Amino acid sequence: MKPTEQRVQQLPHLVRLLMLLTAAVVLVLVVVVTRIYGPVGAPAPTVVANEATDGPPPPGSYHRPATPAPDTALIPRTAAGRRIRYGRELIASTAQYLGPAGSVAHLTNGMNCQNCHLQAGTQGFANNYLAVAATYPKLRARSGQVEGIEKRVNDCLVRSLNGQALADSSREMRAMVAYIKWLGQGIPKGQKVYGTGFMQLAYLDRATDPVIGKAVFAGKCQSCHGPEGQGQPLADGRGYQYPPLWGPHSYNDGAGLFRVTNFAKYVKAAMPYGATFDHPQLTDKQAWDVAAFVNSQPRPHLSASHDWPDIGQKPVDYPFGPYADAFSVRQHKYGPWQPIEAAHPAKNK
After folding, report:
1. Distances from the Cα of 160 to the Cαs of 4, 9, 45, 254, in angstroms?
2. Torsion 136-140-145-151 (CA) sign
3. Which residues cross the membrane (predicted)?
4. Between residues 208 and 193, which one has the greater pLDDT?
5. Angstrom distance (rounded) from CA 185 to CA 312
6. Domain membership flag for residue 166
7. Residues with Cβ < 8 Å from 99, sequence gap 6 or more?
8. pLDDT exceeding 90 applies to what percent of the chain?
9. Is residue 290 part of a domain?
10. Which of 290, 250, 251 shows the shortest CA–CA distance to 270?
11. Which residues, including other chains, have CB under 8 Å from residue 178's CB and lie 6 or more apart?
12. 220 and 311 assigned to the same domain
């Protein structure tokens, strides 16, 4: 056989060999690229599952007890005492008096003040009332005005209970103010006490994640608040055993808890039911991510165009522009917040 004929016969074998080599190279490249970059938008089910089932964490750094509230047994048996007790009842069972089927008026969404201010405003780091009388009246950056206790109460009714304001002169407003002042008896003017406000919670080194938070909610929260976050109504229809966390009957987007940092600090110190700031049931990551999930859900809108008249005073997590910086609305809402704080060093002193 001539050499030319041999080369012709070998040509198909060479072509097949080249095709096999090419296929092998392409396969190797695909594997390498996939390992380096991963598929776009791939979920992380293992991380979600782990975070949803973690906990409870060990007791935190808040070891000493919160400042105790006065003993309600010591409320005097006088006309002034009856007003204080009525004020406490209004805080604890707001819907019974002011809800959609309230006995006094129909002003609110059916939630109670106590749903956010636990144990009628006395539980430590759970929106505690003890220092309110000592710190109000005060200038609030949100309104740009000096506000008294009455304005603070009405802010909760309008925002957190998505309702209408009470007249300052009404029996109900006078009673709630009397109760709040009674709680703060003996606290010097201008002084905060341990257990008021929110507990400290270090920022994550990433943005909060509503997707992970959804899994946390399913594992830690929905047994009380329901799989759709609509809460558990009382049998008589006048309030909730466990309140709705989103939807038409929950707090609106002007409420303080609509800020993710506030909600995260609150649930870390007080949720799920039975948790306290010194014996939490959620890890820090769970608190941050479930706060992001809950506040990513639909809820009533409050027109609050007059809030934060000095936009340079807006908190880093305030989810509505305009801002005095170039960070996006999404980053302001979900973080990471460290870069935003770094851009406003004077405000954070």
Report:
1. 90, 85, 34, 8
2. negative
3. 14-37
4. 208
5. 35
6. yes
7. 106, 107, 108, 109, 110, 111, 238, 239
8. 75
9. yes
10. 290
11. 80, 83, 84, 87
12. yes
- Residue linked to tokens 């749903």: 115
Side-chain half-sphere CA neighbours of 122 within 13 A: 15
**Mean of the per-residue pLDDT values of the chain:** 88
Structure-model confidence comparison of residues 29 and 143, the more confident one: 143
Both structure tokens of 333: 């809402």
Q: What is the pLDDT of residue 26?
A: 53
Q: Is residue 87 part of a domain?
A: yes
Domain co-membership, 334 together with 262: yes
Whole-structure pTM value: 0.84
210 and 300 part of one domain: yes
Residues 144, 226, single domain; the answer is no
The pLDDT, as a whole number, for residue 237 is: 82
User: Are 117 and 247 members of one domain?
Assistant: no
Cα separation, 175 vs 182, whole angstroms: 10
Domain boundary among 183, 210, 229: 183
Q: What is the pLDDT of residues 311-336, one digit of tens each?
A: 999 999 999 999 999 999 999 999 99
Domain region containing 100: 72-183
Chosen domain end from 183, 208, 242: 183
3-state class percentages of the chain: helix first, strand second, coil last, to nearest 5: 45, 5, 50
Instruction: Write b or e for each residue in 84-99: b if 16 or more Cβ atoms lie within 10 A of its Cβ, otherwise e.
Output: bbbbbbbbbbbbbbbb
Question: How many structural domains does the chain have?
Answer: 2
φ, ψ of residue 212 to 5 degrees: the values are: -65, -40
pLDDT of 132-170, one tens digit each?
A: 999 999 999 999 999 999 999 999 999 999 999 999 999
In this predicted model, what pLDDT tens digit does every residue of 73-101 receive, in sequence order?
Answer: 999 999 999 999 999 999 999 999 999 99
| Judgement on whether residues 236 and 283 belong to the same structural domain of the protein | yes
The span from the CA of 185 to the CA of 193, in Å, is 12
Position 96 in a domain: yes
Distance CA 94, CA 115 (A): 10
CATH code of 91's domain? 1.10.760.10
Compute the half-sphere exposure of residue 29: CA atoms within 13 Å on the CB side of its CA.
6
Token pair in block for residue 65: 């007890």
Q: Same domain, yes or no, for 77 and 175? A: yes
